[in-house]
């Protein structure tokens, strides 16, 4: 699935989780998800948490 934004940015959320950089920042994308992160290191940490099942950031 591709997401298109009004500023022309486009991100493909299909495929494996990965960290990508765009003009407005860093993102974790993949498996139908898009999440903004502060840095590539934070992105890798988020991916590791999601893969390990410890996704406290999404737990309510």
How would you describe what is shown here?
The strands form two sheets. A three-stranded antiparallel beta sheet has the order 3-4-5, with helices on one face. A two-stranded antiparallel sheet has the order 1-2. A hairpin with a 2-residue loop joins strand 4 and strand 5 (about 35). The longest helix has 13 residues, at about 40-50. It contains one helix and five strands; from the N terminus they run βββββα. It has one domain (about 1-55). With about 60 residues, it is an alpha+beta fold. The model has no long low-confidence stretch (mean pLDDT about 85). The protein is flat and about 35 Å long.
Overview in brief:
By secondary structure, the chain is an alpha+beta fold. It has one helix at about 40-50, and strands at about 1-5, 10, 20, 25-30, 35.
Mean pLDDT: 87
Tally of contiguous helical segments = 1
The chain-level structural class is alpha+beta
Most strands sheet = 3 strands, antiparallel
Shape: flat
What series of H and E elements makes up the topology? EEEEEH
* N/C terminus separation: 26 Å
Evaluate the radius of gyration: 12 Å
The percentage of residues in β strands lies in: 35-45%
* Order of the strands making up the biggest sheet: 3-4-5
Number of domains: 1
Report helical residue fraction.
10-25%
Query: How many strands appear in the DSSP assignment?
Result: 5
